[in-house]
Amino acid sequence: MIKTEKAHDVLSVSDFRERIDSLSEAEWIKLGKSADYLCWGLAIEGQDLLNIAFCKALEGKRKCPRDLPAIVFIYGVMQSLVFAYLKKRKRDPLAQSVEMVVEDDLLEGLDLKPNIDTPEEILIANQTLENINQVLSGNETIEMVFMAQLDGYSPQDIQNLVGLSAVQYASTLTAIRRKLNKLDKEESTT
Amino acid sequence: MTESKDPREQLNSFAQLLIDDLLNTPDAELLQEASNDKSLAQAGVNAKKSYQNAIQSTGAKRLEIARAEMEQENNKTKANVTNIDSARAHRIIAKLSAANDSNLTLAARNLNNISDTEAIELVKELLELGAIKDDES
User: Fold this and answer.
1) How far is B13 from chain A (nearest CA, A)?
2) For the segment A98-148, what is each residue's pLDDT rounded down to a tens digit?
3) So what's the pLDDT on residue A7?
């Protein structure tokens, strides 16, 4: 059955603004930090990505489901922007000429070069991975979780591989996140 | 396992993991963390700025659209106004004068003897001001 979106299922722009206006300090931090994480290795800043996501919502181009917290919705918009960005960057020119580009509306706010991968961006991404690796080195569990994640294992597989309970796995992720705040601090001071 | 080893995709999937953890962190705990870590507080400030900028730019865009619509509307009125000929102008004035219309000032209510040019100008002004409608003739 196809689920159709009804007007009352989604927030109006003014309702959405009300929700955003009532975000807590912690929620603002979550949004800002999520945007920064999503832009790792990309040629855009977290602040710009977040700005585009907000614009899409305020213009009514992306509507927040009523039952979804506003920060989860905005995170979803940012994530689809990044997916579309990566997909477009990877798409080869031949495929590009025949493929329907449904994400183009999402991408209009991003300064995209028309073609595929840029070596600079790959270089930056590799450098970022290297920096993360350095920050996380020295703790075997953390290193194993990080490497397994890069290899594409699911959280369940990682827990089995590293021998962590769900709680231990969650604590390890928090430890990784806190360690990496250090990386952001270093980057912002250089 | 992923087929691609694109470092940007690797970073993105790693980022999602951290974001999951971040979104699940209780607010009080995160604020406590932020009190020792300025980069977190700064992320919050940046996020608010992004929102304010988005409000400004979408507001400006809406204003621009409204202006364009208004201008289009004005141009329509002007285009109609230029189509007034002297016979039509006199007809409109006679009708308003006969009806003792309040849109015409007391001094100007006996207007049957004004020149063609004056009649056209008067009707144009009334139309532009919106005091009368174009279909009143």
Assistant:
1) 8
2) 444 444 555 565 554 444 456 778 888 899 999 999 999 999 999 999 999
3) 65
Q: Domains of chain A by range and CATH?
A: 1-114 (no CATH), 118-190 (1.10.10)
Q: How many CB atoms lie within 10 A of CB A135?
A: 18
Please check whether residues B76 and B90 belong to one and the same domain: no
Q: B105 CA to chain A: closest CA distance, Å?
A: 45
Q: Is the pLDDT of residue B60 over 80?
A: yes
DSSP track, B31-87: HHHHHH-HHHHHHHHHHHHHHHHHHHHHHHHHHHHHHHHHHHHHHHHHHHHTT--HH
For residues B100 and B129, state if they share a domain.
yes
**Number of neighbours of residue A73 by Cβ within 10 angstroms:** 21
Query: Is B89 among the domain residues?
Result: yes
Reported as a single tens digit per residue, the pLDDT across B90-119 is 888 777 777 766 666 645 556 667 788 888
Nearest residue in chain B measured CA to CA from A155: B17
Is there a single domain that holds both residue B66 and residue B102?
no
Nearest CB to B23 within list A72, A86, A122: A72
Contacting residues of A for B14, CB less than 8 Å apart: 40, 132, 146, 149-150
Verify whether the Cβ–Cβ distance A177 to B18 is below 8 Å.
yes
Domain count, chain B: 2
Range of the domain at B66: 39-82
